[in-house]
Amino acid sequence: MKSSTVLYLIVGFCFDLAVAGRCGISSASSSNTPTSTLVTSTTSASSSIATTTTAAVSSSSTVATTTPTSTPATTTSTSIPTTTTTTPTSTPATTTSTSIPITTASTSTPATTTSTSAPVTTTSTSAPATTTTTGPCPTYPQTGKIKVYNTDNTLLGYVRNFYDGQRSLTVGTLAQALEVQLSWDGDACANPTDISLPMQNLQDADASAHNHVGLVGGSGGYSFRSGAVGYAYMAGSAYTSPNSPPQYVGNSIQSLGYNAPSESSVWTFDSSSGALSLKWTNAAGGPTAPNPATIAYDPLGDYLFGTGDIDAFNSAFGEGAYAVSFVFVQDP
Description:
Blueprint: H1 2-19, H2 33-66, H3 79-95, H4 101-105, E1 142-149, E2 155-159, E3 171-172, E4 180-182, E5 212-217, E6 231-237, E7 262-263, E8 267-269, E9 275-278, E10 294-298, E11 303-307, H5 310-317, E12 322-323, E13 325-330
Antiparallel strand pairs: 1-2, 1-4, 1-13, 2-3, 5-6, 5-7, 6-11, 8-9, 9-13, 10-11, 10-12
Helix pairs in contact: 1-2, 1-3, 2-3
C-alpha cells in the first residue's frame, strides 16, 4: 500500500509540472519539435516511476527479511505487492496520452496567419516604376525652352528669362530664352494637367522667391469667362496647388506695389507635340473658366497674359492683343 501511494504522488507531481512546462516537457506553444520532446520526456518519466517502484519493492522485501524466520511462508505474500504496484505504472503511461494537448499546439495553424503577409502584393504600387520605360515615351524631368508662335504658326520668339518694366514675362530671342523644367508623377506617356513650370535661369534678384511661370490677377478683373474682360498677367509666382483658385502667395509684380493673387499650377502638357495650354481656376463661387483659356500677347504693352475672352479684352482696352501658342522644346 505504501509503494502504490508513493507512485501516485510522484506521477501526479510530474503531471502538474508538465502543465507548467517542466519535467522535461517544452511549452505547448512551440512548433512540431515539442511533440517528440514530450514523448521522450514521458517515457523517461515512466521509467523513473518504474525504478522508484522497484526500489519500493526492494525495500519492502528488505523489511520482509527482517521478519521472523519462523514464518518464511509469509514472505511469498511480499511478492504480491509487486504485481499490484506494476499495474499503476501502466496507468501513468496512459496519462501520457494527456500529452495530446500538444495537438493543440498543432493549432499553430495560425501559421496560416502568414497568409496575412499577402499584403506584400501592395508592392504592386511600385508599378509606377514603369513610367519611364517603353520606347517612344519621354523621360522626365526635362529642361527646355518655351517657343511662342503666332496664330499662323510663325515663330514670334521665346519666353524671355528676364521681366519687362512691369515685372511681367514677355517674348525675347533664343539667346534670351527662359529655361523651365517639366516634372510630374505618373505615366510619362500621359498628358499631365495642372502642372507648374519652375524657372531655371531667371535673371532677377527675387528669382528664388517667385520661381514658377504663373499668372497674376489683372487689375481689370480676373474672372475668366466668355464675354468678360477677365485676364491675368504672366509673371513669376510662388507655388500654388493644382485646381486652387488665385492665392496670395507672392509674385514678381508685388514689388511695384500691386497686390493681387496668383496661380502657378495652370499648365497642361501634350507629350506628343510639346504644346503647353493654359487652365485657369476662377475664385470660389465664380463661373467655370474656359479650358483651355487663351494665351495672348499684347504688342503695345509688350507682355504675355491669359484671358477667358480675347475679343472682350480688346474691346475694353483696344490694344490689338492676339492669341499665341506655347510649345516646350527640350534641351539637347
